[in-house]
Write a structure and sequence with these properties.
With 581 residues, the chain is α+β, with helices and mostly antiparallel strands. It has 22 helices and 18 strands. It has a five-stranded antiparallel β-sheet, with helices on one face. Strand 1 and strand 2 form a beta hairpin. Helix 4 packs across helix 5. The chain is globular, with a radius of gyration of 29 Å. The protein starts with a strand and ends in a 36-residue tail after the last helix.
């Protein structure tokens, strides 16, 4: 046992404890943390860490950045003012906290059987999926090959669910865990070789994956895995297989198709639209599913009730403010990782705290009034996904964030002032490979032009992409979209007047925004929507009051926008005397 501050590193059971609560960590992040803790107080270079944990595999150093991000999130460590892991630029890392030996974690739970409660709040709303995994394990133990794919977006809880399931596998199983990480050299069969090496470092069944002879094919490698399973039922747990090599995918397909009973359970997690081999992995899952050789368990976002249970578990409270639940759901849209990051950020900013009189959780002020309600850890996590794309693809996504969470390809092309066909092809490519953009259909524009329609899977992606652009660039792109809207709908401008006004306002062009608002107000009057017309007039008055005075009402705005809109008159708005600017 290694103790540092309120954390205990349980090297015997390979887990981390925080103030008596067990924290789920995947094998590789745990191994990185263990090595740093065991070498506390000195610089551990990138090469030393890579050689210690991947002695026979070439791994690109940037892989360590992914693990450090996860460890800092678990430890609550700020890289700018580290309490635990200090980065030494271009050299390595140093564990700076004081480490001592401890006989046991501060909770007696370490002496109890591991069960679902060891991972509090991690699998709220996942009981049905856990039950299906347990059923698959019973069938596998009885000699039937079982393949299960846990699919879903990043942060949805696949790793947490797999960790809880692993804790419930009984001693009758040999458990082998492997993980695929972007940045690894494409060594064939790496995740399976890594899993088997942990169990049988010198066994022939493991060594054949490390040093396969030139003629070794899927059949021989399948036989090696099957030999391990025949000795004792084998549970092969693989994480993030969307990042694996094609050879591993072919081997998984061969293992599933082979005839004969075998006590083998394979559970793999994946984000099917992410990764270097996203199309190949989707084809594999579809093929095995159609042949009834696998089970696909999609992990969905949490509903409001499940999210409330998650937050109640995290905050150890049976009742929480309704405003808090609504705000966290709005920010996270039911993604568990995002929700917990938002709650942690609210606490760190002092917006969520316990009342001094009764100890109940309460919001202090309105959380939406805080300047930055997207946690740095969450923003960086989203950035890592974006950075895997090419510069051109990132540029397209930034432009896609200008309209809204949902966006048509023609608006993206307009924002970039580029060709629609080429822009649509890039959007399609991103939607096929990444989970945070989805194709949502097509729309037909005046004149018969058709354009594909897309949507960000989560509003936080759109927000992050929007904010990473400079204000001047955002303004330019808003203005281009507004002008393109007016071109496409020339003669029918009232249909898009409010949208165009919003884009002009975001671009800082108040004159053109007011002109479009007047078109919208005129349309409201024609439809006898007098309340809406009055609201628009009040909005026009507020904006006009901030413009420099020239000849004419509100600077003469209305006839100066290139479309010869007549200036609005006070008599156009019968309720104007009752509206305050």
């Amino acid at each position: 046992m290694k103790q540092f501050e309120s954390f205990t590193l349980d090297t015997g059971n390979e887990c981390l404890w925080h103030s008596g609560t067990r924290i789920a960590l995947a094998p590789k992040p745990f191994a990185v943390l263990r090595y740093l803790v065991e070498n506390a107080g000195r610089l551990v270079s990138h090469d030393e860490l890579l050689d210690a944990l991947w002695p026979e595999i070439y791994v690109q150093p940037q892989v360590l950045r992914t693990y450090m991000l996860e460890l800092r999130k678990v430890l609550g460590d700020d890289p700018r003012d580290p309490r635990f892991i200090r980065s030494v630029p271009k050299r390595g890392y140093c564990f700076v906290a004081c480490v001592s030996e401890d006989a046991a974690p501060r909770s007696s739970a370490v002496n109890q059987p591991r069960n679902q409660t060891d991972f509090p709040g991690q699998i709220v709303g996942r009981e049905a999926e856990l039950a299906r995994l347990c059923a698959a394990s019973h069938e596998a133990r009885g000699g039937h090959r079982k393949f299960v794919f846990l699919t879903g977006e990043a942060g949805i809880g696949k790793t947490a669910l797999l960790a809880v399931f692993r804790s419930q596998l009984d001693s009758e199983f040999t458990v082998a865990a492997g993980q695929c990480i972007p940045g690894f050299a494409r060594q064939d069969y790496y995740p399976i070789a890594d899993a088997l090496r942990q169990l049988h470092p010198t066994d022939a069944a493991a060594s054949i994956f490390h040093h396969p002879h030139p003629g070794a094919g899927p059949g021989e490698l399948c036989a090696a895995v099957e030999e391990v399973a025949r000795q004792k039922p084998l549970a092969l747990l693989l994480e993030d297989v969307q990042w694996t090599d094609e050879a591993t995918l072919h081997l998984l397909s061969a293992l599933a198709r082979r005839q004969g009973d075998l006590p083998l359970l394979v559970v793999a997690t994946l984000s099917p639209q992410t990764g270097a081999n996203s199309e190949a992995i989707r084809a594999l899952v579809h093929d095995l599913h159609m042949r009834r050789l696998c089970i696909e368990l999609p992990i969905a976002r949490l509903g409001k009730r499940e999210l409330a249970g998650l937050l109640q578990t995290r905050l150890a409270a049976s009742n929480l403010p309704g405003e808090l639940l609504a705000y966290v759901y709005q920010k996270s849209e039911g993604n568990p990782r995002f929700a917990l990051m938002v709650v942690d950020h609210l606490q760190a900013e002092g917006a969520l705290a316990r009342a001094t009189d009764n100890g109940a959780w309460e919001l202090r002020g309105r959380p939406e009034d805080l300047e930055d309600m997207t946690p740095r850890e969450l923003a960086r996590s989203l950035e890592l996904g974006i950075e895997r794309l090419s510069d051109r693809e990132q540029r397209v996504l930034e432009a896609a964030s200008i309209p809204a969470v949902a966006f048509p390809a023609w608006m993206v092309a307009a924002a970039l002032d580029e060709d629609l066909v080429a822009t649509e092809e890039i959007c399609d490519s991103i939607a096929r490979r990444m989970t945070f953009v989805q194709r949502a259909g097509e729309e037909e524009l005046p004149g018969g032009m058709r354009s594909a329609f897309y949507a960000f899977s989560h509003a936080l992606y759109r927000e992050m992409l929007y904010q990473r652009q400079s204000p001047a660039r955002r303004a330019l792109r808003h203005a281009r979209i507004a002008r393109r809207l007016r071109e496409i709908f020339r003669g029918r401008e009232s249909l898009i007047a409010l949208d165009a006004a919003a884009h002009y306002e975001a671009a800082g062009d108040s004159k053109e925004s007011i002109a479009m608002l007047r078109v919208a107000a005129r349309r409201a009057m024609e439809l006898r929507a007098y309340g809406e017309a009055a609201e628009l007039e009040a909005r026009i008055a507020r904006m006009g009051a901030n413009l420099p005075a020239t000849n004419g009402r509100n600077g003469g705005i209305g006839g100066n926008d290139g479309l010869a809109w007549p200036a609005a008159k006070d008599t156009d708005f019968p309720y104007s005397t009752h509206v305050k600017a």
